[in-house]
Amino acid sequence: MSSVKKAVFPVAGLGTRMLPATKVLPKEMLPVVDKPILQYALEEAKAAGIEEFVFVTGRGKSILEDHFDRAYELFDTLERKQKTEALAELESWLPTAGTVVYTRQQQPLGLGHAVWCARHLIGNEPFVVSLVDDLILGDVPCTGELIQAHEQTGGNVVATMEVPLEHTSRYGILDPGKVEGRLVEAKAMVEKPEPEAAPSRYAVIGRYVLLPEIFDHLERQERGAGGEIQLTDAMARMLGAHPFHGYVFSGERHDCGDKLGYLEAIVAAASRRADLKAGLGDVLRRYV
Ligand code: G1P
Fold it and tell me: What are the pLDDT digits (tens) for 153-168?
């Protein structure tokens, strides 16, 4: 049984890096093979024992709610046509009634602000934050690895991986202390430093297990990098008061917010599918 039951999915972003596809369609609904991006993160959270799913949405995102609802006509038609396999697949990931909640981030004030918008829905318990753009494929769900690490350390844990030095300005970067196996103690952290200022190459990837005290720090609404209320800054203020670690997760991460990363995610996800792998090889050889 997992000790962490709730996950926050900040999904209010405009997805400008994927225009024009995201002009009308929320970026989280773009398909990776045959599932929208956000469904991968939801299934990963569910596999890790999460029972309540909090989506922080924004204007133009209401089809996200439809996606997690029962589509009566579709279900009825599949039932009548005895398409039992398709029906079972749809049922398998549909969240139980009352376990998905939505709130809106009314202004684009940053990731820290988006997480703060979920404060009343989380209350006083540790919780997961999952950034769905970071699609993580692997045999063990990354969220589950972080929850186990949190149970071991009793503190905050963020997913981390080493990135090329020239990419540090895209990420929150950890200043590492002791490294024990996959656990990297965090002494400090900084949001999107230029390579010369980066304390390491350990980048924060979009999965977090956070203590509820984070809300006290987010409450101050202080602006950081890019003039936004940064989650990294609020996390940095918790250092010293609670254990804080990065966890070098075992899966592979694909950045679906970037065109090439998105293509890579599709190829990677398809290559894990028995029904597509062989055909995919032929297609790639033909075009690349
Ligand atoms: C956010 C966080 C950053 C983190 C990154 C992971 O940045 O602010 O610390 O490293 O996600 O994907 P964003 O990608 O939203 O700019």
Answer: 999 999 999 999 999 9
